[in-house]
Amino acid sequence: MAVEQEKAAAGPTARQTQSLLLALMVLTFNTGLIDAVSYIGLGRVFVANMTGNVVLLAFAAAGVSGLSIARALSSLGGFIIGATIGGKLGSTLAAGSRRRLILSAGILEALLIFAAAVSAIGFDMRSSAPAHQLYAMIVLTALSMGLRNATVRQLRVADVTTTVLTLTLTGLAADSSVAGGSNPRPARRIFSIIALFVGALSGAYLLRYGVALPLFVTGACVLLTTATYASIAATAAKE
To answer: Is residue 222 one of the residues assigned to a domain?
Structure first.
């Protein structure tokens, strides 16, 4: 444990950094899946994109048809609680390695998404019924995304938040050679945009087969990505 902490203090290796970036790209893809499920399948609400969710909450408060104050607030509340849990997890594991934090948060995130997938069995997407299943899925997925955001925030990886692209797009344009910038990290910025787009596209397609399938796929992706990163990071730490 002492050796692991000493190596963590020395900073991640190039291999660990590359594997982390790849893992975050996969998680960005997963965000597209999750928001496709929540917006299309759970009644026009976001569970990962809280900027959009707050806007939808305002529209619902103004009486726009098809939107729900209760759904938006459930998502917002779940996200905040998840982010609080993620922050607590990060502070508890602050003395340990980055690998330990990612492994702990990733497993918890996957379990929450799998729980949402189980809740989706028998759910009728067209009528949004039964209501208790609808709200269970909203809260569980929002919890997982809040946890994810808090964890990624603590990793401090530039231009890869896994859930929002506003600053990524701004950086891509404002730092470009056209704007007089040096165009730093263009590849990770572009791939983040592509990953979210492809994830949302995949989620919209998978919803043709019900809500449960894309949630099970997302949970499996999170678990596999977490396990793969943890294995690579453990091997790299021994080198």
So the answer is: yes
